[in-house]
């Protein structure tokens, strides 16, 4: 059997740690892809995996993704991720979270954790009793940052959509721009409210019929069946539900000028980025446009470590810079003939000191 660090997913991770705590029953993997720009930052996922290999693959891919996301957001953080391997019943105890906090602490700040799928703000508060290397804690005071990153991610996607519409359609006005929003959860709902405020014409789809009906009522949107939202004739398709929606079938079905949304890992495989470009569809690379949440939790962390709580305006100002990075990617894509995802990957690799000429 080949050594696992020769597998493509390993991609020169600096550290991969298996954490076992017999007393609490904790089994976790902490993966640090790169600390070139700063401590590896990325959330902790609590998930029941079919086998340990899937857990390892998830940790490695997510950790590498965080290196790229943090670098492209201009944050002084590297990339890391942790997964806690849940049992079939999803048993999660205080003792497990405490043991996990001890493991994070033992890394002395090389890894900074936060919430991810299956981990709540309350869970993180338990982890934070054992280590200070935690972000995404509840805000202290009205103007302080922290807590749920969803609204900040929505804000970044909103700015990104405005930039994409200006770039592709030559309009600085969202009035009458037709946006199909897949997913009406934390990010999708926040995004829909911001777009509706600007006069965009919205169609929403979500498997949660009650949530989508309430949001449509509030924003004046139409509702589409979940299996029809990707083929809607629109200006912008915005995926905010699942990853890997841009597969062979998905790319072929699109009837839009722009794809710009928050979902992680939207491209099912690397070739789907060039396929979008071949169809003349402008793509906003997911980890560039969806960085609003990580900007919020990182600033909360950095300010807390420096003992100077930073305000919401600082976070907003950083999120408003997401369009500049997107424009840089799109300009380079047009100049080089490479697709935006390929350009973004190459830029991110350069930023973390692993580019061709690094
Ligand atoms: P969420 O769980 O609050 O919302 C997801 C929504 O998608 C839910 O309402 C769910 O019912 C819906 N959904 C699930 N399957 C669907 C389907 N087949 N068709 C239509 N809708 C479907 O999650 P969220 O926090 O809003 O995140 C949305 C996406 O953005 C996720 O992929 C997440 O990984 C990504 N993301 C989120 C953040 C953040 O700050 N929350 C940051 C970066 C990326």
Characterization of this structure:
The chain has 358 residues and is an alpha/beta fold. It has two domains: 4-128, 3-Layer(aba) Sandwich (Rossmann fold), CATH 3.40.50; 150-289 and 324-351, NAD(P)-binding Rossmann-like Domain (Rossmann fold), CATH 3.40.50.720. The chain is 42% helix and 15% strand. It has 13 helices and twelve strands. Strands 1, 2, 3, 4, 5 and 6 form a six-stranded mixed beta sheet that branches. The protein has a six-stranded parallel beta sheet with strand order 9-8-7-10-11-12, with helices on both faces. The radius of gyration is 20 Å and the shape is globular. 49% of the residues are buried. The mean pLDDT is 94. It binds nicotinamide-adenine-dinucleotide. Nicotinamide-adenine-dinucleotide (NAD) binds next to helix 4 and helix 5. Residues 149-150, 153, 182-188, 205-208, 211, 226, 240-243, 262-264, 290, 293 line the site of nicotinamide-adenine-dinucleotide (NAD).
């Amino acid at each position: 059997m080949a050594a696992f660090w020769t597998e493509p997913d390993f991609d020169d991770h600096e550290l991969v740690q298996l954490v076992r705590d017999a007393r609490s029953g904790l089994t976790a993997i902490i993966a640090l892809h790169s600390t070139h720009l700063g401590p590896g930052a990325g959330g902790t996922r609590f998930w029941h995996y079919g086998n340990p290999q899937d857990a390892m693959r998830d940790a490695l891919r997510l950790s590498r993704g965080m290196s790229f996301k943090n670098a492209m957001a201009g944050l002084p953080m590297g990339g890391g991720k942790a997964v806690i391997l849940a049992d079939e019943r999803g048993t999660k105890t205080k003792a497990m979270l405490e043991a996990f906090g001890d493991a994070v602490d033992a890394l002395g700040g090389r890894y900074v954790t936060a919430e991810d799928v299956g981990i709540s703000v309350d869970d993180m508060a338990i982890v934070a009793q054992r280590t200070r290397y935690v972000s995404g804690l509840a805000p202290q005071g009205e103007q302080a940052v922290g807590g749920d990153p969803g609204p900040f991610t929505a804000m970044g996607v909103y700015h990104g959509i405005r930039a994409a519409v200006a770039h592709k359609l030559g309009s600085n006005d969202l009035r009458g721009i037709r946006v199909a929003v897949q997913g009406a959860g934390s990010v999708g709902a926040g995004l829909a409210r911001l777009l509706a405020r600007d006069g965009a014409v919205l169609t929403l789809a979500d498997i949660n019929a009650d949530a989508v009906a309430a949001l449509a009522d509030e924003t004046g949107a139409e509702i589409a069946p979940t299996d029809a939202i990707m083929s809607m004739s629109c200006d912008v398709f915005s995926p905010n539900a699942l990853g890997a929606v841009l597969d062979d079938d998905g790319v072929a079905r699109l009837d839009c000028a722009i794809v710009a949304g928050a979902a992680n890992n939207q491209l099912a495989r690397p070739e789907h980025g060039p396929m979008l470009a071949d169809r003349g569809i402008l793509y906003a690379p997911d980890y560039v446009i969806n960085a609003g949440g990580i900007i919020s939790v990182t600033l909360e962390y950095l300010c807390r470590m420096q003992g100077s709580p930073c305000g919401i305006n600082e976070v907003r100002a950083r999120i408003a810079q997401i369009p500049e990075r997107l424009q840089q990617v799109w300009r380079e894509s047009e100049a080089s003939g490479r697709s935006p995802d390929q350009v973004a990957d190459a830029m991110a690799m350069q930023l973390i000191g692993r580019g061709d000429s690094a």
